[in-house]
Amino acid sequence: MQPSSAAPIRRRLTEREAAAELGISFRTLQQWRVRGTGPAFLKLGRAVRYDILALEDWLAKQVHTNTSG
Asked: Which positions fall inside the Helix-turn-helix domain (predicted)?
């Protein structure tokens, strides 16, 4: 049998866990998802899940150097 070269599956965060990681409320994260302004998410049936690396990537893109625009 050949060893698998596939990357291991990472644990996905629930909506509440992802909101806690970002330091925001659960409702704010839901609103962002509905508006399409929040981090990427997975929909598994009715369950919404967030990959921790996707959260970190999205957060890094939110950095601003000034308040204009």
From this structure: 13-62
Reply yes or no on whether the pLDDT at 1 is more than 70. no
Among candidate residues 58, 60, 39, 59, the one with its CA nearest the CA of residue 50: 39
Q: What is the dihedral of CA 54, 59, 63, 67, to 10 degrees?
A: 130
CA angle 25, 26, 28 (to 5 degrees): 65
pLDDT at 2: 64
Neighbours of 27 (CB within 10 A): 10
pTM exceeds 0.85, yes or no: no
User: Which of these, 6, 27, 30, 26, lies nearest to 17 by C-alpha position?
Assistant: 26
* Distance in angstroms (rounded) separating the CA atoms of residues 23 and 45: 26
